Amino acid sequence: MTNVTGEPLRAGLSGCGGISHATLEAAARSPDFSVVALHDADAGATRRLGARFGVAGCADSFDGLLGDDIDFLILNGPNHVHAEQAIAAVSAGKPVLVQKPMARDHAEACTMADAARRADVPLGVTMLELGRPLHQDLCTLIRDGFIGEPVLVEACLAHANHVRSPPAPGDWRLDPAKVGGGVFIQLAVHHLALASWLLDRPVVEVGALSAGGHTPFEEESTVALARFDGGAVATFSASWATDAVRFSVSGTEGRIEVADDRVRISVNRPFSGTVVGAIDAGDGNVTSMDDIVARGRPRASVLEVHGRFARAVRGEDAYPWPASRALADMRVLDAAATSMRTGRIEAVGEEPHESADGR
User: Fold this and answer.
1) Which of 99, 116, 120, 196 is deepest in the core (most CB within 10 A)?
2) What's the whole-model pTM score?
């Protein structure tokens, strides 16, 4: 890396789908990084996105992102190209921030982590839920014992985008071999990572089942039961057939619930004061500050997550979801997929200790 400390790092971005629009909008506002080159298997998509966001560098191949004028890479492409691209990038000495899920399964993710370790460069996974200021506040509350000992997590993430606009035949999202599964690995991984981070404990057992029939996806709706080390239990549900976003953590002394951009915190004791940044939306409802900021502007979480990774590359920050944490997620996803096939509760193996930056 040749850039001068204090200047925005220069990022190369591979994958010009919808998520990259948010990435480029965030980059335009970030003091930490800018996107200077793009790549996609569809050259037309590369040119269109470059023209829309004023990115002059449009690489004809992925190798075109590995030059000395690039400080780190953002990989937003399909799941089945994550490993090949990440290994090529870290082997060229480039730090990598790869879109969730890290890979299609734990074994594939391990090849990525091993390559980053050998090259001694950072490898992180984009987990936008960890970048929300609200969730950072909630993490502090939970770890400080505000709701006592966590005992129950309930999470649901569902998007009916594919009902409203079905994917075209041949779309990679319809191929379980390219996805690494179905809706669980695509959507539930968000809340799985969030819960593991908030509780600071790994999942040790998981059981899952799935159903379909309303969309072209074989694994359309999934629910999983999980037990964390220490005894907390959780339900994680995900679907492509409806819309829902709910997340709650209940403890021995209270409960925190986030649903429909509203936060409800209740404790089993007298309380007064402010616990999270919030404002009155004008209709008597209190809304989290980061959701207000997000309306009409790039989501705060996109800006925060990518900015933190850039600062981590400089050695100025610690990225919250390095490869070492993501590998634990991949073990849970593998166990859930096995449970869907066997109908049994599956044990989740332990991940060996790795350095904090995921090398």
Assistant:
1) 116
2) 0.89
